[in-house]
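Lecture 7 notes: from sequence to structure.

We start with a single chain of 146 residues. Read the sequence below before looking at the structure.
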Amino acid sequence: MITVAGTVSSPLGAEEAFTYLSAFEHTAEWDPGTPVVKKLSEGPVAVGHRYHAEAEFRGKRQTLIYEVVELTGSHIKLRGENKTVISEDSIDVSPDGTGCTVQYTAEFQLKGALKLIEPFMKPAFMSLRDPAMNGLKSALDARAGR
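Now the structure, written as tokens:
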């Protein structure tokens, strides 16, 4: 398994930040590695909600179908899958003064024969972190008016 994690702080309040981030369709607004995310389920975010995502990885676009598998007032976990990878994304938002801290963790498990090259793929997956974390911080700060 390959784990990619990052933390950002923002002046945006924790509740507002979590409301924005738990609506996973907003991911395309801040993560350049995931330019397309469409909500497939109706209504407010809930366990079982599904999303169609298109991720850019090593110059190719791959489709994953994500499902919300855990949801509390400050934590959401989604599981995405296609024929080559399983991705589990967790977002945890905590208050930090008048703002918030966001911990984003993505765990990737390659399938089939690709599992053998997983250790060699880690740098490619790690290269996704900084652009996503920078985009996340910018999106949250913009929502806070900064």
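Strands lie at 2-10, 36-39, 50-57, 60-71, 75-81, 85-96, 99-110. Keep this in mind for problem set 3.
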